[in-house]
């Protein structure tokens, strides 16, 4: 009898919970709440390593993996972590996975490991990862937390590779230079010579180019958002006029 009552209560509680809005989670990570473009988190490694596409892609993959597994782990252990120690525990979880990723890169992609340098262990202090652990993973189920980490990681990765690709093309006239560092010796043939430069365009390669490129990407996003908001506002006005006309 008690088991039946407990099952009924659990079923009632489950029914009261709102259905997960997967579309909103995906849209939030990739666009509306993009950690790089909207929250402006993790900008230090983003601006520092995006001088080439491959460097940006390597850091993007590492950050995405850490986001997914740390979000999933935090969601699984949240019920045993008290509020007073949650942040240190979250950081320890993130640091553990970053160490694993660092050791794997050291073993299998040593050239890229050297190229990224200090920015691999600095993933631990990436506010985007800690922020998602605190704001989302600690309050949601494991599956939702893993998907949130994946979408946030993809949103961050898209900005990284866009900026890295643009800076490499403008600065060196190449694309996929150093692909062998990530994919192995066979990937040497992936290098594409887009332009021929007598001298490198240093503004694109150096830090000022990263700031300018990031500013342009944010500006483009803001323009798109403004156009979408204006279009939605016009549609709402048309609907209101149609209603008023119909009532009249």
From TrEMBL:
Keyword ATP-binding (UniProt): no
Membrane topology: Multi-pass membrane protein
Presence of the UniProt keyword Translocase in the record: yes
Major enzyme class: translocase
GO BP annotation list: electron transport chain
Subcellular location field: Cell inner membrane; Endomembrane system
The protein's Enzyme Commission number: 7.-.-.-
Function: Part of a membrane-bound complex that couples electron transfer with translocation of ions across the membrane.
Subunit structure: The complex is composed of six subunits: RnfA, RnfB, RnfC, RnfD, RnfE and RnfG.
Name the record gives this protein: Ion-translocating oxidoreductase complex subunit E
Organism, scientific name: Psychrosphaera ytuae
């Amino acid at each position: 009898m008690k088991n039946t009552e407990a099952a009924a209560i659990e079923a009632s509680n489950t029914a009261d919970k709102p259905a997960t809005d997967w579309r909103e989670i995906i849209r939030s990570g990739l666009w509306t709440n993009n950690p790089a473009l909207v929250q402006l988190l993790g900008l230090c490694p983003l601006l520092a390593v995006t001088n080439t596409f491959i460097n940006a892609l390597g850091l993007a993959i590492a950050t995405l993996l850490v986001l997914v597994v740390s979000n999933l782990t935090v969601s699984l252990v949240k019920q045993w972590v008290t509020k007073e120690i949650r942040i240190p525990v979250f950081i320890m979880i993130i640091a553990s996975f970053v160490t694993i990723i660092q050791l794997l890169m050291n073993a299998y992609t040593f050239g890229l490991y050297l190229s990224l340098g200090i920015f691999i262990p600095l993933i631990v202090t990436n506010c985007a990862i800690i922020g998602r652990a605190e704001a989302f993973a600690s309050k949601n189920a494991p599956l939702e937390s893993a998907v949130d980490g994946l979408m946030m990681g993809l949103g961050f990765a898209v900005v990284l590779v866009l900026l890295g690709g643009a800076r490499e093309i403008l600065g060196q006239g190449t694309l996929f230079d150093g692909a062998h560092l990530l994919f192995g010796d066979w990937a040497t043939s992936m290098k594409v010579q887009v332009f021929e430069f007598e001298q490198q365009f240093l503004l694109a390669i150096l830090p000022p180019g990263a700031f300018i490129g990031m500013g342009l990407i944010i500006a483009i996003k803001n323009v798109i958002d403004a156009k979408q908001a204006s279009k939605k506002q016009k549609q709402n006005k048309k609907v209101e006029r149609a209603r008023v006309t119909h009532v009249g």
